[in-house]
UniProtKB/TrEMBL annotation:
Annotated source species: Christiangramia antarctica
A Pfam family per the record: DUF6341
Molecular function in Gene Ontology: glycosyltransferase activity
Protein name: Uracil phosphoribosyltransferase
Transmembrane region(s): 31-52
Keywords of this entry: Glycosyltransferase, Membrane, Transferase, Transmembrane, Transmembrane helix
Amino acid sequence: MKDFFEGIAWLFENILFYPYDALRSLELDSWFFANIVNWLLMIIGILAFLYWMRELKGYNDRDEENRDPSAHSFLG
């Protein structure tokens, strides 16, 4: 059983985390490229936020939501 978990550790440390090791070694040369994964995740989050706000505005413009205070049981 110990060999199984050591095999999983070897897989992650030597193969699956190799791209992150390369980015870490790049840090001294270029801070921006070393954090490219963070930048991509922030861009995806901003785009998702803008999409969601546009969808909410569309629902508000079409007046599809029942805004009566008694419309939802948890408000009454």
